[in-house]
Amino acid sequence: MSWSLPRLSAETPNAIIGSVSLGHFISHFYFLAFPPLFPLLFSEFDVTYAELGLLVSSLYGMMFVFQIPFGWIVDQGYAKHVLVGGLLLTAGGILGASTATTYPVLLGFALLSGIGQATYHPADYALLDTVSTEARSGRSFGVHTFAGYAGSGVAPIVIGGLGLRYGWRPALLIASTVGIVYALIIGVSIEPVYDNALQSTRTSERDTTDSSLAKEIFQPFFHPLLVAMFVFFIAIVVAESGIQSFTIVFLVESLGLNEATGNAALTSFFLLASIGVLIGGYLADRYSSATIAIIFLILTTCVAFVLTFELLPVTVTTSLILFAAIGFGYGAVMPARDRLVAEFSPEQSVGKSFGVVFTGAAIGGSVGPVLIGRAIDIAGSSISMFLVGLFFLIGAAIVVSIQLARTHGRAISVAFGGGT
Asked: Residue 23 contacts by C-beta under 8 Å, 6 or more apart in sequence?
């Protein structure tokens, strides 16, 4: 009796969505591979916590540098190859890190893992967009984002637990095998659905174009709506990074609560964000993606300002509820956000487009903690939630501007006989 893995194709869209989403789970899992081991690495390498923090910053740095080039490779017909290679690079970096005997070597393998992290968004969204119907794309994107949050939530428990029980080297070694094995599985089982779709829609017009390679790679920057989404990603990720980095500081220093409450509030944010993602996917498939994004971003803005100005009594319960509300609103925005990017992407450029906008996310994740941290140094910790609300509001304003621009463009088209 012979046994083989099932072939996943455009005829099995749910299986493709699930497989790609599991890869996203692994991506986020590896993104948090180092922080749970910081106390052990601190003792092992005799380094500062700033140097340990650089291990995480290096991941964002590599994503910033490589996401757009990988997006271009995806759009050349290699989405599946980029995804499989990304999994191997990410897991290989973690595997190499488990063998490191000096900090520079450890950092080098973190950089390698970061290059792998740059592949997921352009490859994942190209595959998802190919197999998702217009009526269900919001839910597809929602499942994908939910899987990422799940990976972030599981990593500290699993890797931290393995590190405490067996040591940091076995913890990273065991974790790395998951990605390597999964890369081999999807490499064999998933058909190149995006690549096939590109092949069937290519025309001689594209083959005869005389545009430069650089212009082709950065093509999405020539589309104003995608540039607006690039800025949008920067704004909302700055806000998210402020919550991740300074929730505990805000609750302890500004509201006089304890660190345990701060940790619980951060947990409630992530928990409700994961629920919001799933519900937001359902809503984005039934209503205007832009409207969904605007409504929930305004909600998060209002709640952040309630916290900033202490408009409700300061208690443990109210703090948990308010941070849960921010998390739910932020999560609900994400499927709508992804649908907008897919909608604005030029034909045969989904990979590049998502590479561009998620480069904006990498910028926001790198700049946000520094910007808000500096503001706290100057004005005190209460300004952190004010800035979180402000950047959520900026995100809402960008989507409003996009809608106005689209409406204005359609009106001009109708006026000149371009359609109804």
From this structure: 83, 87, 120, 124, 182, 186
Tokens coding 227: 């540039």
Domain 217-415 has CATH 1.20.1250.20: yes
**What span, in angstroms and rounded, lies between the C-alpha atoms of 361 and 233?**
5
Say whether 217-415 and 13-197 share the same fold: yes
The CA distance from 303 to 289, in Å, is 21
Whether the model clears a pTM of 0.85, i.e. scores above it, the answer is no
Tens of pLDDT, residue by residue over 33-63, are: 888 888 899 889 988 877 887 888 788 889 8
Which tops the pLDDT comparison, 125 or 57? 125
Residue spans of the domains in the chain: they are 13-197, 217-415
| Class of residue 135 by CB neighbours under 10 A (exposed 0-12, middle 13-18, buried 19+) | exposed
How does pLDDT run across 57-93, given as a tens digit for each residue? 788 889 888 988 998 899 888 889 999 999 999 999 9
CATH ID of 13-197, from 3.30.540.10, 1.10.10.60, 1.20.1250.20, 3.40.630.30: 1.20.1250.20
